Amino acid sequence: xxxxxxxxxxxxxxxxxxxxxxxxxxxxxxxxxxxxxxxxxxxxxxxxxxxxxxxxxxxxxxxxxxxxxxxxxxxxxxxxxxxxxxxxxxxxxxxxxxxxxxxxxxxxxxxxxxxxxxxxxxxxxxxxxxxxxxxxxxxxxxxxxxxxxxxxxxxxxxxxxxxxxxxxxxxxxxxxxxxxxxxxxxxxxxxxxxxxxxxxxxxxxxxxxxxxxxxxxxxxxxxxxxxxxxxxxxxxxxxxxxxxxxxxxxxxxxxxxxxxxxxxxxxxxxxxxxxxxxxxxxx
Length: 283
Hints:
Elements: H1 2-5, H2 8-11, E1 32-34, H3 36-39, E2 52-65, E3 71-81, E4 86-88, H4 90-98, H5 108-123, E5 128-132, E6 148-149, E7 177-190, E8 197-209, H6 213-221, H7 230-244, E9 247-256, E10 262-269
Parallel strand pairs: 6-7
Antiparallel strand pairs: 1-4, 2-3, 2-10, 3-5, 7-8, 8-9, 9-10
């Protein structure tokens, strides 16, 4: 991962550094990270992405003052297209949202408009923002998933080094074509800069040659000591499955647990379908 650690684009990030919390609106707190830092290593061209998708964030600690100085609180949904030049660095996002705390806005719409403007500028693409009352956010309703969980498979793990080749089927494997919707709640990776753990449930929906569940589970567990941002992990999972498994259709959707009032949920798919509304109990 030295290409990340030595990248000049990461050298000025507030992530991993002591910072002050500013409670007056300041758009300059936002920082972007080029998606190309990850995609170059995956041989992905910005002009020819092998997937469609978006990154969906939920903010649970957004507050501001109305024109009379009374606090307002909201849950925010942020959507960034996977075609954006940058991802928003999460600590800078938290600091930016914190700067709304003691700032007066005339309406919910003015807050939403401000968020769209600032986030679109840092991502270099059109961001979408929706604000909800804290007790009325339909997208965060917990629904029972129909995905088949592979976590209980009895496997032995001897290494926690990222091992994409393990996905490659053994010779002579039956090339049965199936459609499966799988979930693993054991995905753990670490922040690229701070090494803090990132926990997620990853949903894999595919049609193609049947993927060995044991091999898939071992592969996902091999991220356990891997350092990468959320969005980059999901793109790596997508590309590795595409490379080593014979799939015709594929979607990968990771639901990460929140940190500092934000959760990040990257979705990548071979189709233009929108990410499903899907919240896990850990969120």
